[in-house]
Design a protein that fits this description.
With 803 residues, this protein is α+β, with helices and mostly antiparallel strands. It contains 26 helices and 30 strands. α2 (62-89) crosses α6 and α2 packs across α8. The protein is globular, with a radius of gyration of 27 Å.
Length: 803
């Protein structure tokens, strides 16, 4: 009898738990229909959502529209907004404990939250009111929300969200800027590490110049560092921390615009697919806003007011990362007699210091002492930096253009949303200061143009290091001379060919008067876009869709042309080479050739460079995108040393050709043994899976599969339909960095013809049907109409002011 009662009790407990789970699943979802009374509104607002949860906000004025966008963001992305603002504020350890402490220390040191507050305080009253309205909308939802919080709050044992502040919005815009600019100083410190083992000429082989350019004419910084007494650095390579926008080597985007002379309609067309880290939910949130004098729709960033990418009824705009060098590192010599002083051109000066208290869940609170120099915060000593820089006689300071107390990016987004023609759009983009972007614009009058946004540092002509490596901070010639005037930034308007393409390649000619960067990305995606645009006389939305779906790799074409004489010794290796010889270079997910090719390249770069780099191989080679390096070496342009000679052997003199054959044999053997298939049975999609990670549940093995989105995916780093390889040891061929949205704008009929799709879904709660609803469409390069829902089909939420 007792056993029977125990069984009933267990059954009742199970049923109760199931009932609670089913209740929670429904109760935690955002409510998209109904009427709510809330404080903070002036007039009623309607939020009309379509079947994918994309809201169209209909308001009587701008303040109410901004309020409603904050409300909608909080409804659908509350955990994402909470974790994002904690990242920016350096407050992750309060929720995630000691594992997040290094991240907090880094972000407290560079001062994202402090800068954000300063920017807010320096804004004019009009734009402070705009940010206040957005924060009020977020907080109205926090106060009104009746159901339980999203599951991450309970799984992470996080407290109820604090009220949102305007500085939280600015902080996340600065984090966006960080992830788009950090590639610069990461490369600086890596070059510095290499300089302690290699000559400058050898480093220029490893990081070769942009195709057609000569290497930068720098001073011999390897000798400079030797004379300064820099000691050999640790064997671990430096990698700049990333906080949501992707790995540095894969950062990129595509956009292109054609004039009416190249379209069926006779009006311009514009396409955009920004490449950022795949996350669940996506970094983007689609929304439209309608009010008197404004009808705008596009991609927003949860936490930030306004449409960042999109169109209104008169113009469309699109961004790609320009990659201007907006960061410099400085070696600050420490006074051996007074360690609280550093050397300046005028003599010794004291570090400015402050104490940052950091709360750590489950551990003792930490007091972080932050030092600043005249150039900026001192980042040496931080865990992410110290593994690549241990020089006790020097501090390492960061100068970054985004750490200015004045910024008008919020005003730029607002003005861009309201622009009526290309001239007004260009003026708006002149206020977009936080990061450099190659912005394309088209208007309904038929004008097209490009302008580079952001603060562009001006370096002295005597600066003989050109921002490529850390410079002596006590030498005034390495200081910035201010920022390039907006009117001198790169721009073009209505080119004769009727076409502008930017894809993170070099967007200026050799005649451009000002220095932007030496670290442009290879031009393969831009070249392929131009090929496909030139292949047809006239374009429409369908041809633009085809271009965005293209997975032909011109990089693979060039690489295989240099490797056609490889001589594998195994039967499987020869079969693989035969397949590659007949391949059309398309990175299709159901084809074997992309997997064979990339496994071969991974093995080949290891065999070429491992003996030279030694203990640095894992970070500098195995986990890096070295297409430009491989092409430079295989083409014979690398002259500083014979990289293909294996210095660890004495018996023979290796050549690139012999290494290529050995690498192909080894990689194919590994692939066939691991899969149990022959060469013909391999499939790219089995290894090349798009992984949309969740912050922080991707780091919890038991929860990862519940929160992540994974799907077989085509493309690679150099295809238009990009799928940048992660190069992670556990899954080197997966992609975590690709087109996070695709959009096509037809200026002949912006509302009826424009289309878009996102990489996940609108709602950040994994229990929602809208969590990953767009992913299958996104994978197959299918689209949704970019227009408000019809009234009869809309889920309508009405917000009414409390009287």
């Amino acid at each position: 009898m007792r056993t029977r009662y125990a069984g009933f009790a267990i059954l009742l407990v199970f049923v109760a738990l199931l009932a609670v789970l089913l209740w929670y699943r429904q109760a935690s979802l955002p409510i998209h229909e109904g009427t709510f009374i809330t404080s903070g509104l002036q007039q009623p607002v309607r939020i009309e959502r379509d079947g994918h949860g994309i809201p169209n906000i209909v308001a009587a004025n701008e303040r109410d529209a901004t309020f409603a966008l904050g409300y909608a963001h909080a409804q659908d992305r509350l955990w994402q907004m909470e974790i994002n603002r904690r990242i920016a504020a350096g407050r992750l350890a309060e929720v995630l404990g000691e594992p997040a402490l290094d991240t907090d220390k880094f972000l407290r040191t560079i001062g994202i939250a402090r800068t954000a507050q300063s920017i807010y305080e320096n804004l004019d009253i009009e734009h402070r009111d705009l940010l206040d309205a957005y924060a009020a909308g977020v907080n109205a939802y926090l106060n009104k929300r009746g159901g339980p919080l999203p599951p991450e709050f309970y799984l992470a044992r996080a407290p109820k969200p604090e009220p949102w502040t305007p500085a939280d919005s600015i902080g996340w815009s600065l984090m966006m800027a960080w992830d788009l600019a950090r590639y610069s100083y990461s490369r600086e410190l890596r070059r510095m590490q290499l300089a302690q083992r290699f000559s400058v000429a050898e480093i220029n082989d490893f990081y070769p110049p942009y195709p057609g350019d000569a290497p930068a004419a720098t001073a011999d910084y390897a000798e400079l560092y030797r004379l300064l007494g820099l000691k050999a650095t640790p064997v671990t390579a430096f990698t700049a921390p990333a906080f949501g926008f992707g790995d540095g080597e894969g950062l990129g985007s595509n956009n292109w615009v054609v004039s009416g002379k190249r379209t069926v309609s006779g009006k311009p067309m514009l396409a955009n697919d920004p490449h950022l880290a795949l996350t669940t939910p996506s970094v983007w949130y689609f929304a439209g806003i309608r009010m008197p004098g404004l009808n705008v729709i596009g991609a927003t960033l949860p936490g930030i007011p306004g449409v960042v990418l999109g169109h209104n009824d008169r113009i469309a705009w699109a961004f790609t990362n320009t990659g201007v060098d907006q960061q410099d590192l400085y070696l600050e010599r420490i006074n051996p007699e007074q360690p609280d002083e550093y050397q300046t051109p005028e003599g010794w000066a004291r570090f400015v210091t402050r104490i940052e208290p950091i709360r750590v869940k489950g551990g003792d609170d930490v007091e972080l002492t932050v030092r600043e120099t005249r150039h900026g915060p001192v980042i040496s000593g931080l865990a992410s930096v110290e593994k690549g820089f241990k020089q006790p006689q020097f501090a390492l300071a960061l100068r970054w253009s985004a750490l200015e107390p004045n910024d008008t990016t919020i005003a730029a987004i607002r003005a861009l949303n309201k622009a009526r023609n290309i001239d007004q759009a260009e003026r708006a983009l002149g206020k977009f200061q936080v990061v450099t972007q190659s912005a394309l614009i088209a208007d309904v009058d038929g004008k097209i143009g490009m302008v580079v946004t952001g603060r562009i540092p001006m370096r002295d002509r005597a600066h003989d290091l050109h921002g490529l490596v850390p410079a002596p901070g006590w030498d005034a010639r390495y200081d910035w001379r201010g920022y390039l005037p907006v009117e001198q930034a790169p721009r073009t308007r209505d080119p004769a060919g009727g076409l502008i393409v930017t894809a993170n390649h070099k967007v200026v000619s050799s005649k451009y008067a000002h220095h932007l960067t030496y670290d442009w990305f290879l031009p393969y995606r831009a070249q392929r876009v131009e090929q496909l645009l030139d292949a047809r006389g006239k374009h429409d939305v369908s041809t633009f869709k085809t271009i965005q779906a293209d997975v032909t790799s011109l990089a693979a074409r060039d690489m295989l042309a240099m490797l056609k004489d490889a001589q594998p010794q195994t039967e499987a290796g020869r079969a693989a080479l035969a397949r590659l010889a007949a391949w059309d270079f398309q990175m299709k997910r159901d084809a074997p050739e992309p997997l064979i090719y990339h496994a071969w390249m991974r093995e080949l770069k290891h065999r070429i460079f491992a003996d030279d780099l030694g203990a640095l191989t894992e970070d500098f080679v195995d986990q890096a995108e070295l297409t430009s390096t491989l092409l430079h070496v295989l083409s014979g342009r690398a002259q500083a040393r014979d990289w293909c000679d294996d210095r660890s052997t004495e018996q023979r003199f290796e050549t690139c050709r012999s290494l290529a054959g050995e690498a192909l044999d080894a990689s194919v053997t590994q692939l066939t043994q691991a899969s149990g298939r022959d060469v013909a049975g391999l499939r790219w999609g089995d290894a090349h899976r798009a992984v949309a990670e969740h912050r922080p549940m991707s780091s919890v093995p038991g929860l990862r599969r519940l929160f992540e989105l994974r799907i077989a995916y085509p493309g690679d780093t150099h295809t238009i339909n990009v799928g940048a390889l992660s190069h992670r040891a556990e899954a080197p061929f997966s992609t975590r960095h690709t087109a996070t949205l695709r959009a096509i704008y037809d200026l002949a009929a912006l509302e009826s013809n424009s289309v878009w799709v996102g990489s996940s879904g609108q709602v950040g709660n994994p229990f929602s049907d809208l969590y990953g609803s767009m992913q299958p469409l996104w994978r197959d390069v299918l689209y949704l109409p970019m227009r408000p829902p019809l009234a009869r089909d809309a889920m309508t939420l009405e917000l009414k002011p409390r009287r």
